[in-house]
Amino acid sequence: MRMTLGLLFAVACVTDVTHAYTPADVTHPPADLRFQEAPGIDLRSTLILGATRHYLPQPVSTDMPTVTGNLEFDNYGNRFVGVNRLGSTLNLNNLLGKKDQLSLRSPGSGEGGHYYRLAYHLTAGPWDTQIGVMWADMAYELKKELAVLEAEGDVSTLSAFVIQPLIKRDDFNLSLRLQYDDKQFDDRLDLAYMRSEKDSKSVSLTLNADSRDDFFGSGRNYFSLGWTQGDVDIQGSPYTVTGYTDDGRFGVLHAGLARVQQLAPRLSLHGQVNGQWSQDNLDESEKLQIGGALGVNAYPQSEGLADSGWLASLELRYALTESWQAAVFADHGESHRNAAGLDPSEALRTQRSGAGLGLRWSAYNWHINAVAAWKLGNADATSDNDKTPRVWTQIVRYF
Known about the structure:
Elements: E1 67-74, E2 85-93, E3 101-105, E4 113-124, E5 129-141, E6 151-168, E7 172-189, E8 194-213, E9 218-236, E10 239-240, E11 243-244, E12 248-262, E13 267-277, E14 308-319, E15 324-336, E16 349-363, E17 366-375, E18 390-398
Antiparallel strand pairs: 1-2, 1-18, 2-3, 3-4, 4-5, 5-6, 6-7, 7-8, 8-9, 9-12, 10-11, 12-13, 13-14, 14-15, 15-16, 16-17, 17-18
């Protein structure tokens, strides 16, 4: 097996085209989520070092219980820091009576790292403006075959955001999100006496929209377009286990499009295309990957880590009963790095394809899903061992 040092942490889907979770979604998950993605779980932010732009604050109503949350288990982690992850989320609602929420989240493997996130948001003003702040701390230590490298690191992130609804209708919604991030990275590769400390500050502006229509019966569309502009100050080596980073200014364009088409009362077709583009060598918090539980499912977490790329998925879902749902799916992703990492022999371009089956059950405040995926083509995994099929599971208990 060829183990690539640069493929360790990245979000499993390129960008967000999701809406906020409500308690009713436990039994009826939001249609725009991937099949293996439980509603109300901030999964994407936990799979990337320092990423908070994927965090979507939950809507809070005045009649919500004071305390809500969940306990969860999944195998969405990376083998070198721990595949199996136990986590929990605790939400305190309406503390000030302003549709506000204080949220504490802590998923982790207990093997090679941790993740803690504290977030607070409230709704203010006559235009339902959401204002929020976040603090997150994530650490890793490589295990298994890569333990000899003595590689470890952490990133602390402080964020502030404003989400402003621009249009709110039954058939069309449009909102604008402005966010500021201050990230402090400290990566160490003790075997090579290498240390990289980075201070990254960035501002992102994202436009999100969703709409309903009667095309071929009924359907819903989701759209996201955003730009991130930032600056990285590097002390020490520009190389880490996730690749090479430019010192100075950087920019990233994000875009996503999704469509949910109702074909019959029990049958629906779900399609997504997401991507990002940058001409810079990005730090680990801005890179994307095309493999993993929310990417090309047939490949491991952290596959295809890069600066630019896209990911497409198509799912055909059938509701067996009120609680049981099955799916068949196919996904494809391509990514490109602008510069090589510590291993100069690694390919700069990556293409991965796969297909599979899924089954999930949602009832009584439980959500359980499992998917099995097979590779399409003969491209070997580079970030971990190959598996056929590759199976992803998630169990969530809401309270």
